[in-house]
Design a protein that fits this description.
The complex is a heterodimer of chains A (275) and B (295).
Chain A lengths: L10 H25 L11 H11 L12 H32 L7 H16 L2 H12 L3 H25 L3 H8 L5 H40 L1 H11 L3 H37 L1
Helix pairs in contact in A: 3-4, 3-6, 3-8, 3-9, 4-6, 5-6, 5-8, 6-8, 7-8, 8-9, 8-10, 9-10
Chain B lengths: L6 H4 L4 H34 L4 H17 L8 H33 L6 H16 L2 H12 L3 H25 L3 H9 L4 H40 L1 H11 L3 H49 L1
Helix pairs in contact in B: 4-5, 4-7, 4-9, 4-10, 4-11, 5-7, 6-7, 6-9, 7-9, 8-9, 9-10, 9-11, 10-11
The chains are: A mainly alpha (275), B mainly alpha (295).
């Protein structure tokens, strides 16, 4: 009366299967590495050269922070501005599109489909492509980087917001509708209050993300601290590179802390205001 | 006023209404203040970022003919681009595998319920540093050390994969129910055995799911790092752009898009399988219980 046990469910057989697939994956990977000339010898480097290079990198040129430092601090401000502007404008556009893309607020299913596919497209195009095209179109400078970040934010958060709207409690909108509210009034008084806190909290997350992404965009010509870093690197001013790097680490860490702190405040606020 | 619908509202002395009204007024003021601050910040940042609607419109005007230069894509360059694309893919794969494997010891050492404080603090500092350092900054330094090529990109991607996965994993380990660990330790298991039989099975599905997510990310980041000097399809794309070979750049773009899209689908599919593995079993169980109740 023992239940019939397929052979494939035996522990020994399972182990064998997983071991075999592991070996096969590793073999495939090694074969690919060999085909692409990725051998351990490419890690080789000259010891004396490395010592020399360490001396070129250290110590970082901290005097950059106070001597003729207006360019440096303005570039930090530029990077922060890029992230901020892209987050605010992107968030506003994403919110508007989200109401068109959510099944319970969309004016027509065709609109929903169109907006959803637009959002998918915006999400999946790599930023490198967007920024290279935009640098051609609007010229080198922070504006192209802002537009790139904005497109990415709209794609990512439009979908996220639309999903959040689709998950709101139906009862609230029905009760508001039963009072004779129009579609816009339902959105304003039943749906928006439910989703707004998570929207705003996510915007802070988006700001974090955009700040990180703003640095590579700067390297490609989008301005800000990333651009300064790339210039210092191209000029082989490695002491400056280290100084910029430390500044970037501190900037990202501080902004992450701040946005975490504010986000926690926003998420816990409704609970405390009821008390 | 005698016909007012809410007579008590006109008698402003009623305490509950007064309280509500002050609260409403305060709320309105807060809204105005928030809106004003945001508007001010937007104005300042827009000025710093040289936002210029005229140049935007001009950009659209200029952009349309430029966009025409990209088409038709240069299909003849397709065969020569397949190998760089493979380089980017393999790079992301190796970086992900290294990240998954090496993040486990890092996470074990960084979680407060397992590791002694000094080791934990050092590893947490290392993880925070890795997460705060964008890959692009890493690669600019690594290129100076190793020269142009895939090795700097590989190291940068692996390091940041370790940073992200170890952070998530360490947080997951710290949330493990201590009773479970005690139960295993109570049978006389050594620390290694506790890790092997209580912690690893618990975190493995999340680790693999996060690893797949990271793989997706590594493919995208690999394209960007490639453009800065790490080789691969990103390098081809940027050099084609810089040499004004827009049709070849369009081909590289199409390849990149399909690669990113395919990896996204693949990772979604695998992740759903990993995370559903547990749920499906539970679902079947529930169904069988329901069946028993019906009988």
């Amino acid at each position: 009366m023992t239940p019939a046990m397929p052979n494939s469910a035996l522990p020994s057989r399972k182990l064998l299967t997983s071991a075999l697939s592991l070996v096969a994956t590793l073999a495939l990977l090694l074969a690919l590495c060999w085909y692409l000339d990725l051998t351990p010898s490419s890690f080789e480097m000259d010891g004396s050269f490395l010592f020399d290079l360490t001396q070129q990198f250290f110590p970082p040129r901290f005097s950059l922070y106070w001597n003729h430092s207006s360019l440096l601090w303005l570039s930090v401000l530029d990077t922060l501005s890029m992230a901020f502007l892209a987050t605010v404008c992107g968030g506003a556009i994403a919110m508007a599109l989200a109401f068109l893309a959510a099944s319970n607020t969309t004016p027509h299913p065709v609109v929903r489909l169109a907006v959803r596919s637009l959002l998918v497209m915006q999400r999946s195009i790599p930023q490198l492509i967007v920024v290279l095209v935009l640098l051609l179109a609007v010229g080198i400078g922070p504006f192209a980087a802002v537009l790139t970040l904005l497109i990415g934010s709209v794609g990512m958060f439009g979908k996220f917001f639309a999903d959040a709207i689709e998950q709101v409690d139906k009862g609230t909108s029905e009760s508001v509708q039963s009072l004779g509210s129009t579609k816009l009034q339902t959105i304003r008084y039943a749906i928006l209050p439910q989703v707004l806190p998570s929207f705003v909290a996510n915007l802070f997350y988006a700001f974090d993300n955009n700040l990180r992404a703003a640095i590579p965009l700067g390297v490609f010509g989008g301005g800000g601290i990333g651009f300064q870093l790339a210039v210092a690197h191209d000029l082989l001013h490695y002491h400056d590179v280290m100084a910029y790097t430390l500044l970037i680490i501190v900037m990202i860490a501080v902004m992450e802390r701040v946005s975490d702190w504010v986000r926690r405040g926003i998420i816990t606020q409704p609970a405390s205001s009821h008390a | 006023m005698a016909t007012s619908l809410f007579p008590s509202a006109t008698a402003a002395v009623e305490p509950p209404f007064l309280e509500w009204r002050t609260r409403l007024v305060r709320q309105r003021w807060r809204q105005v203040a928030t809106g004003g601050t945001i508007a001010l910040l937007v104005a300042i940042t827009a000025w710093r970022c040289q936002v210029n609607l005229a140049s935007f419109l001009l950009g659209i005007d200029k952009g349309v003919p430029i966009f025409g230069l990209f088409f038709p894509p240069d299909w003849a360059s397709l065969p020569s681009m397949l190998k760089p694309m493979l380089v980017t893919l393999v790079l992301a794969m190796i970086a992900t595998i290294l990240g998954i494997v090496l993040s486990v010891p890092c996470a074990l050492g960084a979680s407060s319920n397992l590791a002694p404080t000094p080791i934990r603090l050092i590893l947490r500092f290392f993880i925070a540093l890795e997460r705060g350092l964008p890959e692009v900054v890493q690669i600019l330094i690594l290129v100076a050390v190793f020269g142009l090529g895939v090795i700097p990109a590989l190291i940068a991607l692996s390091l940041s994969s370790i940073g992200m996965l170890a952070k998530l994993l360490a947080d997951a380990i710290e949330e493990i129910d201590p009773n479970m660990l005690e139960a295993v330790a109570g049978t006389g298991a050594t620390t290694i055995q506790v890790i092997r039989y209580a912690i690893i099975p618990h975190i493995l599905p999340a680790l693999l799911a996060n690893g797949l997510f990271r793989f997706e990310f590594n493919v995208r980041a690999g394209v960007i790092l490639g453009a800065i000097g790490g080789g691969g399809i990103g390098y081809i794309m940027r050099s084609d752009m810089l040499t004004l070979d827009y049709q070849a750049a369009c081909m590289a773009t199409l390849l990149t898009l399909s690669m990113v899209f395919a990896t996204e689908r693949l990772s979604d599919f695998l992740r759903a399988r990993i995370l559903d593995g547990g749920q499906m079993r539970r679902g079947r169980q529930r169904r069988s219980i329901a069946g028993a109740a019906a009988q």
